[in-house]
Amino acid sequence: MRKLTPILFLLSAPVGLHAEDGHQLWLRQQKAVPVTVVAAAKNSAVLASARQELQQGWQGNSGATFTLTLKKDKAIKYDGYRISPNGVQASTEAGLLYGVFELLRRQQTGQTAQAGVSNPSYEYRLLNHWDNPDGSVERGYAGQSIFWRKDSSFVTTNRDKTRWREYARANASVGINGAVINNVNASPLILSAEYLARVKAVADELRPYGVKTYLAVKFSSPALLGGLKTSDPLDPAVVKWWQSKAKEIYQQIPDFGGFLVKASSEGQPGPQDYGRTHADGANMLADALKPYHGLVMWRAFVYSPTDKDRAKQAYNEFVPLDGKFRDNVIVQVKNGPVDFQPREPFSPLFGAMKKTSVMPEFQITQEYLGHSIDLAFLSTMWEECLQSDTNQAGPGSTVARCTDGSVYPQTHTAMAGVANTGLDRNCTGHDFAQANWYAFGRLAWNNQLKSAQIADEWLKLTFAGATGSAASATTSPDWNTNFLAPVKQLMLDSREAVVNYSMPLGLHHIMSATRGHYGPGPWWAPPKMRADWTPGYYHQANENGVGFDRTKAGSDAVSQYHEPLASQLNNPNTCPDEYLLWFHHLPWDFKMKSGNTLWNELCAHYDKGVQQARQFQRTWDQVQPYVDAERFAAVQNKLRSQSGNAVQWKDACLLYFQQFSHLPIPATVEPPMHTLEAVIADDMRPRR
């Protein structure tokens, strides 16, 4: 055992009250008291981070002694830890850091610091950044990239380093241990010497918080960057090029995590261009990374314009390859079979690949759920997916258990989230969008957590004491009753509200592409546009009804699910209402479980979503005494915009579908405020 050395840290003075801009996220500095830290004598950057966090945030007994112990323990897995009120034990230095953050979180939220072991559900817990070398962010709603910029692309400033350290600290506080720092639609330039030098600079700042750096790579890089005649994964020259590139990267970044690959999808090059399989492409890269213990995350997001049902293609391409991937390859699967919709059934790939490491991919950035304008707490969506039962190995074979190694042995386990971070002062564009970053990390660490607990934690960490003492706020009946309870309920209801006013009852992909997937567009179908990029492909509305027929009589996508789920989904009378129009094309007068016709039920959902959005406004207005002025006004303005957005969704969709149903909007539903023509004209108006 290493010799332990007592280290006493003097704590900073109490921070005075001031206006808040959200930049500190859920890590707002609190008044701390002195603590003596007894730690391993080994000097390292990660241990220094753990010590510093204790110094800045200790809320326990003044003058207490806290011990950080590095020691192997069979009960501790990966970067897990054993925690007690006065110490943390872990097998890795990162585990010590995570244990410190957990103890401080408990102190700050008023939870009892009970002893016990906490192990992460997944070995790798990563953010995927769709950031481009020119500083732009695909599906980014929080400003420019924190990693790249168009001007002075290769200059690293102190401001850059500060932002990267802040980012790494936020990730570590919720257990995120990896970051893919560029877009899956990758530029080959990312592997050039100039860009790799900047990658090294980023990695150096993330490392002290246990966050490894990864890169998304373009499959055709050997030809585009290396000057080869081909990028065929079985060509010896291509194999050698990737081996040399891997060696070059690891010489600069010894702890480099590996590659993320989007291939043979949406026009991106891949092994299928050369008559090879996804396994051929992934394995070639995996072999290049193997000597350095690197990982290949190979995305299963594939579809082509010729397939009659886009939702089926990933399953059809990947299930036949089960067991053919190297052990350092993990197949990355979006939560649903189409594309991060407000609600999708889980991807049938979960549990179907029994001999291959499979990881879920969620979208933290709100591409289809209102960008950085609408408030949507996505933890409820991810919890819904993770707890969905695949039945692949009998009842209880949830998506969570099928991906964390509980049901099928996996060499590696992981979860990825498409990040929502940018250079905006509050980092995510919407103060409440920070909760989705936080929730992703918490669920990646513990995939059994409930959204109510996550929301409770985040609100206490983010808003408690905004107008006074944080410690007293979390124990105040007044604050808990008048702020915490109503705002937590708002968060828990928010994603369902977005579903209600945008795409209820299994409708999906009916948004406007004119505004980057923001707002309604069931009519959107530009000339010569491929069908599966248009809403009509998905809603298939006509005078006979609405919905995509994926039953055995239709595209037969239901057969990709295991029984008894396949039969349940195949029957409209047993299919859950929330997935009804995903799997069925039904007549407008179809009788729902509620007793309503399908048309009236659709109208009721759209109207409910509008009323929910308006109630969110009222709830927030009532909590003004408990929120600092700057963040209160920012959220209030967003909620006003969301309320208007909800009305536009309702009016546009009901008026559009009414053209086919020829049925009146029920008297119980608020009449449209817009005409269909006006909404379409506004959608087609050029955007600046």
UniProtKB/TrEMBL annotation:
<dbReference type="InterPro" id="IPR037054">
    <property type="entry name" value="A-glucoronidase_C_sf"/>
</dbReference>
<dbReference type="GO" id="GO:0005576">
    <property type="term" value="C:extracellular region"/>
</dbReference>
<dbReference type="Pfam" id="PF07477">
    <property type="entry name" value="Glyco_hydro_67C"/>
</dbReference>
<dbReference type="InterPro" id="IPR029018">
    <property type="entry name" value="Hex-like_dom2"/>
</dbReference>
<dbReference type="InterPro" id="IPR017853">
    <property type="entry name" value="GH"/>
</dbReference>
<keyword id="KW-0732">Signal</keyword>
<protein>
    <submittedName>
        <fullName>Alpha-glucuronidase</fullName>
    </submittedName>
</protein>
<dbReference type="GO" id="GO:0033939">
    <property type="term" value="F:xylan alpha-1,2-glucuronosidase activity"/>
</dbReference>
<dbReference type="GO" id="GO:0046559">
    <property type="term" value="F:alpha-glucuronidase activity"/>
</dbReference>
<feature type="domain" description="Glycosyl hydrolase family 67 catalytic">
    <location>
        <begin position="113"/>
        <end position="426"/>
    </location>
</feature>
<dbReference type="Pfam" id="PF07488">
    <property type="entry name" value="Glyco_hydro_67M"/>
</dbReference>
<dbReference type="GO" id="GO:0045493">
    <property type="term" value="P:xylan catabolic process"/>
</dbReference>
<feature type="signal peptide">
    <location>
        <begin position="1"/>
        <end position="19"/>
    </location>
</feature>
<dbReference type="InterPro" id="IPR011099">
    <property type="entry name" value="Glyco_hydro_67_C"/>
</dbReference>
<keyword id="KW-0378">Hydrolase</keyword>
<dbReference type="InterPro" id="IPR011100">
    <property type="entry name" value="Glyco_hydro_67_cat"/>
</dbReference>
<feature type="domain" description="Glycosyl hydrolase family 67 C-terminal">
    <location>
        <begin position="428"/>
        <end position="668"/>
    </location>
</feature>
